[in-house]
Amino acid sequence: MVSANSELAYNSKIEGDVVVSRADAVINWIRTSSMWPMPMGLACCAIELMAVGASRFDIARFGAEVMRFSPRQADVMIVSGTVTYKMASAVRRIYDQMCEPKWVIAMGACASSGGMYRSYAVLQGVDRILPVDVYVSGCPPRPEALLDALIKLQQKVKREPSASKLLSA
Amino acid sequence: MPASPDAVAALKGGWAGVTDRASLDHPAVDVPPGDLLGVLRALKASHGFDMLVDVAGVDWGVGARPRFTVVYHLFSTTAHAYIRVAAHCPDNAAPELPSAAGLWPGADWHEREAFDMFGIRFSGHPDLRRIIMWDGYPYHPLRKDFPLAGIETPLPDAEVSAETKAGLIAAPMVGGPFVAAPGQINMGEAEPRAKDESWSERPPKPGA
Questions:
Q1: Domain locations along chain B
Q2: Alpha helix ranges (H) inside chain A
Q3: Contact B168 A120 (CB under 8 A)
Q4: Which of B8, B103, B113, B204 has the fewest CB within 10 Å, making it most exposed?
Q5: B3-132: which CATH architecture?
């Protein structure tokens, strides 16, 4: 026996075939629930990124388990590792190949600021070539920190005026 | 195959220019650049040094003469012995030595790295391009007159460079994320060693 009071989900028998919401809420809900990462694994942070994807930490709990190695199918680029100047052009090119809307997480000290690599060969922060949404500290960050960054990014995306952006585009 | 002490004596007998080189571990010889390929070939063919372990460049300093040296480490897989062969580049401005890639295919990438980092050219090399820095990078970073912090240059990709307005910037340790100043942070927790700029800037080289 299921009483009427225990109904938590949408029930078409009660509410009919219509759900009323704001376009922003619906679009952002769709976007945040399936953020497919582009794993830009460049150094040791990529190992932590793999741990985030594996069963113990399981990024699938937040809808981002579908690591896409094709930038055209990805929503969020996770720059995990040291970006050398030689690699910087490739990183930027892959970012350019991603479809809008797209976001960037700079994972770890190197991607955020160049980290300990103050040298002729290392880009001093990937934000010099990409618009970064979330920075994660750590060398490397704990997997929980990256999950936290993903949740932060989802909260940020939920505040975006997506509908008006789409209409004005 | 004969052991390596015989090899040094044989080399000194065969080539007048071959001299002993100071060494703490393995037998070592200095070889004039003109005799280098002949010596390496003889070591490989007649003395059993069939494996090229390492090709290393040395920059002795801006005013040093000779300034650039290339050091070869050979190993004999039968006698289990090493030998070290060093050759000074005759020209400081355009250092050049013959390539050993014809003797050991493994010399190919070693020499490309020595060329990339020191600007030492290897004549007869099949494909002497940079191996670590990108093609078109104007400097040789491991030279003594190159600052660790780097020198401003554009990014390798002109399109990306124009789009992002970003380029290679000099990144000295001072001003970096791991340098603490007194009063700003607990110096007991900070890293005072990072304030030592002696290896990051351009100090006068001793013996130059």
A1: 3-132
A2: 12-15, 23-33, 45-53, 85-97, 108-113, 143-158, 162-168
A3: yes
A4: B204
A5: 2-Layer Sandwich (3.30)
Distance from C-alpha of B199 to C-alpha of B18, rounded to nearest angstrom: 35
SS3 B71: strand
Enumerate residues 6+ apart whose C-beta is below 8 A from B198. Answer: none
**Tens digit of pLDDT for each residue in B24-41?**
888 999 999 999 999 999
What residues of B are in the A interface, CB distance below 8 Å? 132-134, 139, 141, 146-151, 155-157, 160, 163-164, 166, 168-173, 176-178, 200
Q: Tell me what pLDDT residue B189 has.
A: 57
- Express each pLDDT in B183-200 by its tens digit: 666 655 555 555 656 555
- Select from A127, A62, A123, A133 the least CA-distant residue to A103: A133
pTM, two decimal places: 0.79
Residue (of B193, B201, B143, B144) closest to B171 by Cα position = B201
The whole-angstrom separation of Cα B42 and Cα B22 is: 21
According to DSSP, residue A163 is labeled: H
Give residue-wise pLDDT tens across range B125-180: 999 999 999 888 999 999 998 888 888 888 888 888 888 888 888 877 766 656 66
The number of C-beta contacts closer than 8 angstroms across A and B is 66
